[in-house]
Design goal:
The chain starts with a helix and ends in a 14-residue tail after the last strand. The protein is elongated and about 95 Å long. With 379 residues, it is an alpha+beta fold. The protein has a six-stranded mixed β-barrel with strand order 1-2-7-3-4-8. A five-stranded antiparallel β-sheet has the order 9-11-14-13-17, with no helix packed on it. A four-stranded mixed β-sheet has the order 10-16-15-12, with no helix packed on it. It folds into two domains: 212 residues, Umud Fragment, subunit A; 153 residues, no CATH class. The C terminus is likely disordered.
Length: 379
């Protein structure tokens, strides 16, 4: 019993210290040597799963090789950390070294170049599923279950042992033992309280993986605990063109994930560019194992489109009252630009329609109403 108690006690101490280091490592002076991040998307699946903790070590740019997995700041948003694989190294005309990256689960490379100054480190170790535990510790229930309960159990063992010591040992030795036990208990409770406080003050840093494929022009990452989701405007058409003079409809797909079940969407809350959907259908849009849904909106109902190219935004709420949003780029065209002009050699150019970008979408199940057979606004 003494061996089990001592082992359990030191195990709780060790785990507490490890969790604290994982949470605060990005703000410690050691962040240039090592740091931890919670992976929150499937862009690196299957080599890195959602909810994994990745430990990265500082590295000289010259030591980064092709096929290395690195963590770096998003060139378009320095608040985000991306974890992707290096597929190419280049040197610019100004002799600056840049890296070309890609997610293992993406079909195309990232649409940016990563200068060496944005690299935070190279993958040292990946711990699957640990990130889920770290995120759960930020809740009162998770903290009580994984740290509070063990602390109370240890406290009970210590009280029991102190009582036994009073009956077996002389008063002096009992007093010394009590002081030792009280110090350990105080330290444990102090570390637990400090850990809980740090979790409330500092969010666990997230590693984003921007999803891209041959059938999407861009995608949005889902961050653990955030309200972002992945959408694809006009699935299957990488240009995402919209003819505002059309009387047709435009399709916007919402991609299901580990953190968003499309069956839990509150359909009355769905809005795309101030327009409400006229129809929706459950379909399989991408290649993951999660169910997706496609919403249909009247082009004439869209508002707030002022530029030739801009982000289209979709907002929704799930049945638990949590708000989500996702964005994707759109290209505003006019009806007279649906056909190219004649080519330079005098031959007629190819007509631009969306028929060349028909997505390979596999229906899963439909909404309660019959599925609409509506054409896009360009057809």
């Amino acid at each position: 019993m003494k061996t089990v108690l001592k082992t359990t006690e030191w195990l709780v101490f060790t785990l507490t210290i490890v969790f604290i280091l994982m949470v605060v490592s990005p703000i410690l002076p050691t962040k240039n040597s090592f740091a931890t991040y919670v992976v929150s998307s499937n862009s690196m699946y299957p080599s890195i799963e959602v909810g994994s903790v990745i430990i990265v070590s500082g590295v000289k740019p010259s030591n980064i090789n092709i096929n290395d997995v690195i963590a770096f700041s998003n060139p378009n948003d320095d608040e985000q950390t991306i974890v992707h694989r290096v597929i190419e190294k280049r040197t610019t005309t100004s002799n600056e070294n840049i890296l070309i990256t890609k997610g293992d689960n993406n079909d195309i490379q990232d649409n940016w170049e990563v200068p060496e100054s944005l690299v935070k480190g190279k993958r040292l170790l990946t711990i699957p599923k640990l990130g889920i535990l770290i995120e759960s510790l930020k809740t009162a229930k998770g903290f009580a279950l994984f740290l509070g309960l063990p602390a109370l159990i240890l406290l009970g063992f210590q009280i029991k042992k102190i009582k036994e010591g009073i009956n077996e040992e002389i008063l002096k030795r009992t007093d010394e033992e009590v002081k030792k036990r009280e110090t350990k208990i105080t330290t444990l409770l102090t570390l637990s309280a400090l850990f809980f406080l740090i979790l409330q003050l500092f969010s666990s840093p997230q590693a984003y993986g921007l999803f891209s494929s041959t059938v999407t022009i861009s995608g949005i990452s889902l961050e653990i605990g955030s309200n972002e989701l992945e959408i694809d405007i006009k699935p299957g058409n990488p240009q995402n063109p919209i003819n505002l003079k059309s009387n047709g409809v435009i399709q916007v797909s919402v991609l299901g994930s580990e953190y968003l079940d499309v069956n839990d969407i509150k359909f009355s809350s769905v809005v795309f560019m101030e327009a409400e959907p006229v129809k929706w259908n459950f379909r399989k849009v991408n290649k993951d194992n999660y169910e997706d849904i496609v919403f249909f909106f009247n082009v004439s109902d869209l508002e707030g489109i002022e530029k030739t190219t801009q982000e289209g935004r979709l907002d929704l709420e799930n049945k638990d009252g949590v708000n989500f949003y996702g964005t994707d780029m759109i290209w505003v065209i006019h009806e007279d630009s649906l056909k190219n002009t004649e080519s330079k050699n005098g031959e007629p150019a190819e007509e631009i329609t969306s028929s060349g970008y028909e997505p390979e979408i596999e229906p899963i199940n439909s909404s309660t109403e019959p599925q609409l057979n509506l054409e896009d606004d360009l057809l």
